[in-house]
């Protein structure tokens, strides 16, 4: 997968993109629907946590998603990255459907399922985040009470 992305400078042709998506989809480990959406308050902490995977982190450091480095999550955030799209209102814009929740879990686990050669980290595939952490981040994106949706008009 990475070889194709490197050789094509992240511009795979349709057949290569389909192969990447198929391989990525096979790697996704989905929890039962009831466990897809965890606790949004924990998800907010994970999304805001930029620690983990750095040489200066201790061996017991719990990795975060560092989501704000690339995305605006809530409208009240003062500082956020612009590499990825704004996620403000994410659940509200998708009507909080189970299908959208499944798609979001899949995208966080391995974004190559939906966009071949995505620059978004493969949090689940690379075991940066646990299944519970991914479910909590998904809850942050989809819970109507979370700042992601509550602040969005």
Q: What is the CA–CA distance across the termini?
A: 39 Å
Biggest sheet architecture = none
**Could you list the spans in which at least 5 consecutive residues all have pLDDT below 50?**
none
CATH 4th-level superfamily? Cytochrome c-like domain
Q: For the CA atoms, what is the radius of gyration?
A: 15 Å
Rounded mean pLDDT is: 94
| Tally of discrete structural domains | 1
**CATH fold call:** Cytochrome Bc1 Complex, Chain D, domain 2
Overview of the molecule:
Helices cover 40% and strands 0% of the residues. The termini are far apart. It has a single domain, classed as Cytochrome c-like domain (Cytochrome Bc1 Complex, Chain D, domain 2). With 153 residues, the chain is mostly helical.
What would you say about this model in short?
With about 150 residues, the protein is an all-alpha fold.
What are the key terms here?
Cytochrome Bc1 Complex, Chain D, domain 2, 7 helices, mainly alpha, 153 residues, 40% helix, globular
Topology, element by element:
Blueprint (H helix, E strand, L loop, with lengths): L1 H6 L6 H14 L12 H9 L41 H4 L4 H12 L21 H12 L4 H4 L3
Helix pairs in contact: 3-6, 5-6
